[in-house]
Design brief:
The structure is a homodimer of 716-residue chains.
Chain A: H1 35-41, E1 61-63, E2 68-71, E3 77-80, H2 86-91, H3 99-102, E4 104-105, E5 113-114, E6 121-129, H4 131-135, H5 143-162, E7 167-174, E8 179-188, E9 190-196, H6 199-202, H7 206-209, E10 221-227, E11 241-242, E12 261-266, H8 277-306, H9 310-315, H10 317-339, H11 342-358, H12 363-382, H13 384-389, H14 396-411, H15 427-436, H16 443-458, H17 467-473, H18 477-490, H19 496-503, H20 507-511, H21 516-559, E13 573-578, E14 588-590, E15 593-595, H22 596-602, H23 613-621, E16 636-641, E17 653-655, E18 661-668, E19 686-690, H24 691-701, H25 705-710
Antiparallel strand pairs in A: 1-2, 1-6, 2-3, 3-10, 4-9, 5-9, 6-8, 7-8, 9-10, 10-11, 12-13, 12-17, 15-16, 16-19, 17-18, 18-19
Helix pairs in contact in A: 5-21, 8-10, 8-11, 8-16, 12-21, 14-21, 16-18, 17-21
């Protein structure tokens, strides 16, 4: 039986049997209409209560900016990931009192340590659709004008909202610009570190285990939020009092088992699930393989250019590490999307959607708009070879010269009109980067990377080449090699003082400079500004035209009895599913729960597998009390679900069928790297700290009985 | 209920409940007495028939020298591993007809290719205890005299046995010298290659998958043995006829499932399962950690000495690869033995044995002998630091000089009395090594490795240092560095012609040489000869005294109702157990059967994951016929059992409860590297090609219907 309640509200499509329960980063407002699926999945609460982010239980979920956290007591106690609290732990560490190494327990409130003046906790208090208000001035416009009208309306809405002190506001687009929401968040400013395990627990396995299963991290830490005596957000003060949140989670004392219902609430950053079939094909058949080849070639180029020279190797170590990380991610995403046959799957789905759309009353107009969108996407792809290579044509010192020229140009405008990244508040960061360059640059290596990138540039079609770049680098590899030698032999920017002096010059002074790199940067500038303008023009068109595609998709899914969640955009979302094993490859099964036995197995005594002695001793004693798993007869550590998460979900509360806190999300599995584009139920898993491990550590290993008491948890 | 039939025959202890069924490389003669365990494990055949290696079924199991194989037709058809047949495949490959890459199918007998004049198949026809004969002349002697007496008796027994043409004989010790067996083998000399899959099937995954699970190799090939028309072994001749073996295996057509009985018969090489507790402690607490540190340091030393110099890196690439392989093995063995807590387990077992022994009628005398053994072992361990480092003090060119001096010394004796490795038949090999050195040597790198090793040498206690080595290398690191510079600046052995000329000189000529490396080698020689003599003296004492320990162990196990198998020594053994999954680490389960899905998953198109197109196409078609697994609904590839195997078991037939061939052993898992010393039932697994995969390949992918017919197997 399939019953679908039709709703006129865009995106808030109703629960029908037929929807895939596991996939989806749902807007809270969609959840009451997914009641049937929630119930079928095992949820025992009232789905209607999930509707309002300003009331329990979702009001307990907060953003740390890039991470998620949640309240776990009426006295503002917050739990999140250890890696999300790392800044605060670092800030309070000294050689004498190394909180990273040793962990931290505030025995009483007065010992809680300020997480610093920049630390924030944002509590979402408003989540309202403002589509008409944002698009009112844009309708009828196209391209850059559309983009600018939307931008102006967004800024006005934010300014009006932030007129009330103590709040941060933002306008976010949903469904590719079909809808806009105004998000209002209470901005708590006095955040204090309450508890952190040693890094060798909180980050056990570090980079080696990153993205891996089985996992054995105790990736958690506690904060407490404070406010002024008037209950309003205030900077750190000894006189501040604990914030009393609108809601907090109860930590579960029940076991977690395979197949159990699980739900995660958090602030996922960005996904591309609803991109068009041509965007999928471009990503998988062109962009990722080419990015992999480019990064691989660049790494080899740097390796060859630094071989046998330890000084150069050190200078480029972090560059190479970052390139390798990007390469690994790109390869993982590519492997995953191929494994999921994503190009074909998405193409077949879109073809079916368009066929369905053609038969609908308003189908012709919608198809025309989708064709217009496709024209824009095709135009974008026409320069993809150039767009891929261009960032690599301004590395290190040349990049610094480009940045110096651009900042001088922007300084000629009122601050509010300067390009993002070149405003007054950005100048300190730019200066820091220019200083740091000294330790990360070698002219011979930089020339080698440029020769590598230029080889690809010279292979571009004439239409993709840029006269300004030709003017600087010449017409072919031989000419480029000579030009590069001259540029780097002549420049004085390699000297930090000279570079910083240039940063302080105005555009006219810089234009008069005879430094060959500054002159080259000035030559390149018009091309870079032109491309930027084209990009904004295209962004406007995509923002204008993509809603047609999304409306078609939503209507088509509605016809299938399925709801559509908007792609992740940093706003509060809920996913529900279950505790799940994984068969990552033929012949291998991953169990969904790990145990302390794995900590001992991985322990080598050398970081990142240097479990602290108190932990190893406690495991050896086997005294697990009420936190032991009744089936496994030992202490669990982490567990795995099929919940739909992405970057930004770190620290997110994982809830059981009763809405009690059973885990903290902290990672995904390697097989799910491709989930930014496609959720494949065979492979997508999320990795969580088991709250029973947290409870055991607080009870028996690094004791904090007062926190257990505050959370109304058993002492043992 | 425990019923043990006592037997006076040493080692042939009888089946009792209580024995661990999975562990054990049993002598065939022990099997009838393990009937109860065999039956309990699921064996449906008659254990009494396993007693005689010259009759069916074990007469079907043959040795290839380092590998095992088995007859699968009355016409001399033999199946073994692809990697065991690699020599024959290579020998018959040309650039135009690349059998390694493309595989090989002889469409008829006349197309079968000779495996070369050195290829052999050995059929065991005699397996007799000759303890009294071997020890008759040794009794009452000690040390070197004991060793020499045993050696003389062995040589005499072998000579008498080999008097009959067409046979190879050997005398092997069992239970550390408590027993000796005369093994007589028919030596088949005309071996021909019948079928080999492409390397990308036979060695799919190569080094990357080596020791790993899940596995997807089709590691099999077919030979056929030929004899003269008189039925006797003969070299290759067109007139030869297929050998008619005394037995052959029937290939199973039934599925393989987890828990199924399995039995393997083969020629395992060497194990150390019955070493004393002090030998276990020495291996795990001292030797392996120190070997790991030494190898790791040496690799770093070579890496540093070759950094930035591609020529040097190439010269030392194979040395480094071999060191890394040894390091990996040592680390794997160490990790495994620690995981199994082997020091403690063995110590507790031995302590209990000695306590039991003290209460036995003849216990005092046995304990005295065991104490004498311990004295020898202690003496051996007293110089362990030196014994570990000494081989690294004669690398490359210096090693060549030592070898040249030694060969000249040995040439002064009758050939039969020369030291093993320095006889006439070895000289070509020595010359080849001296030539090859040219591509594997650099004086600066060799000096760096010597400085590294000497640093450890100079840290030895005075008692362990050798005056001859001090004379050559000096008293400390500074002196050594100077000496090395002088040695390598002065030597002319770096020139191949000079080196080979030196090889042809006699001892007097060499003694007169002024080449500093040849002079250094001559100075070192007395020390090396002295250590060799000490080592033989000790070997004699261990051979004399170890039987007391083994007799005590056997008697003790008998009291526990358990039989004892002798450590592996290259003779025919049988192990039985079952098809078994594995949990290698917390959170991971390995399924015991892999499928063709894994071939596709691993396929990258680049070796060693370059599955050939006909295979990929056949998998895509999914046409698996009668070879498909009825439960998994697809084609299986490899499977895993808990059978007790080690190096030498490659190619061994794996049999089901009815004695039918279900698999070919080809590897162990990484967690079982430590099984040379201890069988840990939690981790020890053996990896086999599923005969159904072989049948499918022969039926549908690289067809050989005539071979299926010859084995009386279904065509599809």
């Amino acid at each position: 039986m399939r019953r679908c309640h039709l709703s006129a509200v865009l995106g808030l499509l109703l629960a029908c049997s037929g929807a895939r329960a596991d996939e989806g980063m749902w807007l809270p407002a969609q959840l009451p209409q997914l009641a049937a699926q929630l119930k079928a999945a095992g949820f025992k609460g009232d789905p209607a209560q999930l509707n309002d982010v300003t009331r329990p239980p979702l009001a307990a979920v907060v953003s740390l900016g890039g991470c998620t956290a949640s309240f776990v007591s009426p006295q503002g106690l917050i739990v999140t990931n250890h890696h999300c609290a790392m800044g605060a732990i670092q800030l309070n560490s000294t050689p004498e009192r190394n909180l990273i190494r040793d962990g931290f327990i505030a025995a009483q409130r007065s010992e809680e340590l300020s997480a610093g003046p920049a630390a924030r906790v944002w509590v979402t208090v408003g989540f309202d659709k403002v589509t008409d208000r944002i698009l009112a001035g844009a309708r009828g416009k196209t391209g850059r004008a559309y983009y600018d009208a939307v931008d102006a309306a967004r800024k006005a809405a934010v300014a009006a909202c932030e007129a009330e002190p103590g709040y941060r506001c933002s306008v976010v687009e949903m469904y590719g610009g079909a809808d806009f929401y105004l998000i209002k968040q209470l901005e708590l400013q006095d955040i204090r570190l309450v508890y952190a395990p040693p890094e060798s627990i909180g980050n056990y396995g570090d980079e080696i285990d990153n993205f891996m299963w089985p996992r054995h991290s105790g990736d958690f830490a506690f904060y407490r939020a404070y406010v002024g005596k008037d209950g309003k957000p205030a900077p750190f003060s000894k006189d501040n009092v604990p914030y009393q949140p609108p809601a907090h989670f109860t930590v579960s004392t029940a076991p977690v088992q395979v197949g159990d219902f699980a739900m995660v609430a958090g602030y996922p950053g960005v996904t591309f699930r609803h991109r068009t079939a041509s965007e999928f094909a471009n990503q998988i058949d062109w962009l990722l393989p080419n990015r992999v080849a480019l990064l691989d070639g660049l790494i080899r180029t740097i390796d060859a250019a630094t071989a046998g020279d330890p000084d150069k190797q050190v200078r480029y170590a972090s560059t190479v590490a970052s390139l390798k990380n990007n390469l690994k991610r790109a390869q993982g995403e590519l492997d995953g999307l191929r494994r999921s046959d994503a190009v074909r799957v998405r193409r077949e789905d879109e073809t079916a959607m368009l066929a369905w759309l053609a038969k609908q009353p308003d189908g012709r107009r919608a198809l025309a708009e989708i064709r217009a969108l496709q024209v824009q996407l095709d135009a974008q792809q026409a320069s993809r070879e150039r767009d891929l290579i261009l960032p690599f044509l301004r590395p290190g010192l040349l990049g610094a010269a480009v940045q110096i020229q651009r900042l001088a140009l922007e300084r000629g405008k009122p601050d509010a009109l300067r390009e993002t990244g070149y405003q007054q508040r950005d100048e300190a960061l730019i200066e820091g980067g220019l200083k740091q360059l000294q330790r990360r640059y070698d002219p011979e290596v930089e020339k080698a990377t440029l020769r590598f990138a230029l080889k690809r540039y010279f292979a571009l079609t004439p239409a993709q080449r840029l006269p300004e770049f030709d003017a600087v680098f010449g017409r072919d590899e031989a000419e480029a090699a000579q030009r590069l030698d001259a540029l780097y032999a002549g420049t004085r920017l390699g000297d930090t003082a000279t570079r910083l002096a240039a940063l302080r010059q105005d555009a006219a002074q810089l234009a008069a400079s005879d430094d060959p790199l500054l002159r080259a940067a000035l030559t390149l500038q018009p091309a870079l500004l032109r491309l930027e303008a084209e990009s904004k023009q295209r962004a406007g068109e995509l923002l204008r035209l993509r809603p047609a595609y999304m409306r078609a998709l939503i209507a088509y899914r509605q016809s299938q009895g399925r709801a559509v969640y908007p792609d992740a955009n940093g706003t509060l979302r809920v996913s529900f599913g279950k505790v799940s094993p994984l068969s990552p490859r033929d012949g291998i099964d991953y169990r969904p729960l790990t145990t302390v036995a794995g900590i001992v197995e991985k322990h080598t005594g050398v970081a990142p597998f240097d479990a602290p002695k108190p932990l190893l001793d406690a495991i050896a004693r086997g005294d697990f009390g009420s936190t032991a798993d009744p089936v496994l007869k030992t202490q669990t550590v982490d567990f795995m679900t099929n919940l739909d998460t992405t970057g930004g979900n770190s620290g997110s509360p994982v809830l059981d069928a009763e809405g009690r806190l059973i885990g903290l999300n902290f990672d995904s599995n390697w097989e799910a790297v491709s989930a930014s584009w496609m959720y494949d139920p065979r492979y997508k898993r999320a990795i969580h700290v088991d709250m029973r491990y947290l409870r055991w550590l607080l009870a028996k290993v690094y004791p904090a009985p007062h926190l257990l008491q505050e959370m109304q948890l058993p002492a043992q």
